[in-house]
Amino acid sequence: MIIHQISVLLKNEPGAMASILELLDKNNINLRALTLSDTTELSGIMRIIVKDPENTERILRSSGYSVKNDPILTVKLDDHPGSLFEKIQMLSNAGINVEYTYAFASSEESGARVVLKADKLELANSILKGEEPEYAGENLLEVYW
Q1: pLDDT tens digits, 21-50
Q2: Which residue of 64, 81, 90, 102 pairs with 35 in a disulfide if CB–CB is 3.0 to 4.6 A?
Q3: In 3D, which of 113, 111, 114 has the Cα closest to residue 102?
Q4: Do 62 and 82 reside in the same domain of the chain?
Q5: DSSP character for 67?
C-alpha cells in the first residue's frame, strides 16, 4: 500500500537527532517507523512514518529543517524465512528497482511490515497486491496504522 514518508536532512553531529525527536515530541507526533543513515561525514537523513505527514512536514519546515514528503510502499510480510525475498523477487522480475527498505512497526500479532522505496511505485504496488500491471494507475492510498 502506498503511504507517505517524511525525510529530514540533519547534521551528522551529537544532538541532531535528539533535536528533531524533541520537536516531534513537543508537537505530539508519534513515530510509526524511523530510519537514520549518514549520507556524508557532515550530514545524514532521517526517514519517518507518521499519521499526519503533511502536518509533520509543516512543523519541521517551520523549524528550519530541509524536508521532503515522498510516497513509498509498505508491505505486509508473513512471518517465515524468505518472505521478504518473495516480494523483492516479484518486483525484480518486473524490472522494478528497490532503492531502499526498512522495518515498520505493526499492530498485527503475526507477520511484519517493511517500507520499500521503488522506482516504479504504482506498478510495484499493483504487483504486490496481486493485480495485473495494467491497473497500475490507481489513486494513492494514505492509510496509516
Answers
A1: 999 999 999 999 999 998 877 789 999 999
A2: 102
A3: 114
A4: no
A5: E
CA dist 13 → 18, 22, 25, 66 (Å):
10, 16, 20, 16
What gap in Å lies between CA 85 and CA 95, rounded to an integer? 15
Q: Nearest Cα to 119, choosing from 136, 139, 99?
A: 99
Q: Are 76 and 90 in contact (CB under 8 A)?
A: no
pTM, rounded to two decimals: 0.81
N residues, the chain = 145
Query: Which grid coordinates are listed for 30?
Result: 508519534
95/109 same-domain check: yes
Task: Quickly list H helices, the chain.
Answer: 16-26, 53-62, 83-93, 121-128
Q: Are 46 and 119 in contact (CB under 8 A)?
A: no
The owner of cell 508491505 is: 75
**Cβ burial 96-106 (10 Å sphere, 16+ → b, else e):** beeeebbebeb
Higher pLDDT: 16 or 80? It is 16
CA distance 39 to 52: 26
Place of cell 537523513: 45
